[in-house]
Amino acid sequence: MKIKLLLCGKTEEEFLKTGIREYEMRINRYVPFQIVEIPALKNAANLSLAEQNARESVMISKHFSAGDVIVLLDEHGKEMRSVEFASFLNRQFLSGSKNLVFVVGGPYGIDPSLKKQASSILSLSRMTFSHQMVRLFFTEQLYRGLTIMRGESYHHE
């Protein structure tokens, strides 16, 4: 299985880029992992939030292939502990799916049309994080989940 992380816009802060690159390298030791940055919308200030989300949804959907398992990261999604997320990952690996695609929407969330395409919607926390910070938090949690699946000592419980 391959894992892809789709992001709207570029990661701005250098400290986030450094952390994300570190976890990206670690994840690739376990599974092919790719981060795809979808360009930010042009003239977004002239669009309503709903229009922005709808346009981002179209751009995101272009990166889906038939048979992809789509998982949205959204503050209103299902919360999991790290060990539960590892079990979720394990089920995806055992399902025989070729691609697992995680999506982080833009700063104003995810369009309802995209939610209809998702097989799962997950939340990283009940707290609200910037969509920039979520990128680092998610890559760390993905790495943690993979190490839990392998019974390695990174996660302490």
Task: Provide an overview of this structure.
With about 160 residues, the chain is of the alpha/beta class. The chain has one domain: SPOUT methyltransferase, trefoil knot domain (Alpha/beta knot, 3-Layer(aba) Sandwich), CATH 3.40.1280. It has 5 helices and 5 strands, in the order E-H-E-H-E-H-E-H-E-H. It has helices at about 15-25, 50-60, 80-95, 110-115, 130-150, and strands at about 1-10, 35-40, 70-80, 100-105, 120-125. Strands 2-1-4-3-5 form a 5-stranded parallel β-sheet. Helix 3 crosses helix 5 (about 130-150). The longest helix is centred in the C-terminal third of the chain and has 19 residues, at about 130-150. The protein is globular.
Number of domains: 1
Radius of gyration, CA atoms, in whole angstroms: 15 Å
CATH fold-level assignment = Alpha/beta knot
Q: Approximately how much helix is present in the residues?
A: 40-55%
> For this structure, what is the CATH homologous superfamily?
SPOUT methyltransferase, trefoil knot domain
Which strand-content bin applies to the residues?
15-25%
Task: Tell how many strands the DSSP assignment holds.
Answer: 5
Q: What's the CATH class, please?
A: Alpha Beta
Q: Please give the count of helices.
A: 5
Provide the spatial order of strands within the biggest beta sheet.
Answer: 2-1-4-3-5
Runs in which pLDDT lies below 50 for 5 or more consecutive residues are none
The SS-based structural class is alpha/beta
For the record, the CATH architecture stands as 3-Layer(aba) Sandwich
Largest sheet: 5 strands, parallel
CA(first)-CA(last) distance: 27 Å
Overall mean confidence score, pLDDT: 93
**Shape estimate:** globular
SSE order = EHEHEHEHEH
